[in-house]
Amino acid sequence: MSKVSGRLGIGSKRLLGKGVRHRMAQGIDVALILAYATIVGLTIILTVLRYVFRTSIHGGPEIVRFCFIYTSFLGAPVLLARREHVMVEGLIKRLPNLAYRLLRGFGHALVGALHGFLLYYSFRWISVVGYHPSDILRIPMWTIQISLQICCGLAMFYELGHIVDLILGRKAEI
């Protein structure tokens, strides 16, 4: 472990180490798989119940909608973690190593900052609209709206980890 990584507490087994970020991404993957399975399974069940038995599950469509919201917001940080988000690298890959690392670092900092602003402003938004209950299940809407804050927090965490990887010269894989 280098002196820089030791002082910052960001070694391979520390908070911003690749192992921790990789395990977090795997955990989010499992949550996404469960949410997608819930969406597909519940949609099939609701369709059969509606068109065959002329009945439904109370709150079923609302659960599907909430799972869809969580999959949208949890999928984004996983893509950032794997560097699979939309990015055009044709030009910057041809630059010298230092210029490449500076531009990549700026890109990661910009994406992290945008998520930081969104996170900051989302607290006020949720405080205004989050305590209204959902239409059918009557659960507070903040339990769904907090998915935005989870997404922003994870995105900032992964972008900070990518910046640390650039500073320490680690490979760009998670």
SSE inventory with pairings:
Blueprint: H1 3-8, H2 18-51, H3 60-81, H4 97-129, H5 142-168
Instruction: Bin the helical content.
Output: over 70%
Based on secondary structure, the structural category is mainly alpha
**Terminal CA distance:** 18 Å
- Which segments are poorly predicted (pLDDT under 50) over 5 or more consecutive residues? 1-13
* Helix and strand run: HHHHH
Using the CA coordinates, give the radius of gyration: 20 Å
Q: Helix segment count?
A: 5
Largest beta sheet, briefly?
none
Q: Number of domains in the coordinates?
A: 1
Task: Determine the strand fraction and express it as a percent band.
Answer: under 5%
Shape: elongated
How many β strands by DSSP? 0
What integer is the average pLDDT?
Answer: 86
Explain what you see:
Mean pLDDT is 86; it is low at 1-13. Helix 2 (18-51) runs antiparallel to helix 3 and helix 4 (97-129) runs antiparallel to helix 5. The two termini are 18 Å apart. 70% of the residues lie in helices and 0% in strands. The protein has 174 residues and is mostly helical. The chain has one domain (3-168). The chain has helices spanning 3-8, 18-51, 60-81, 97-129, 142-168.
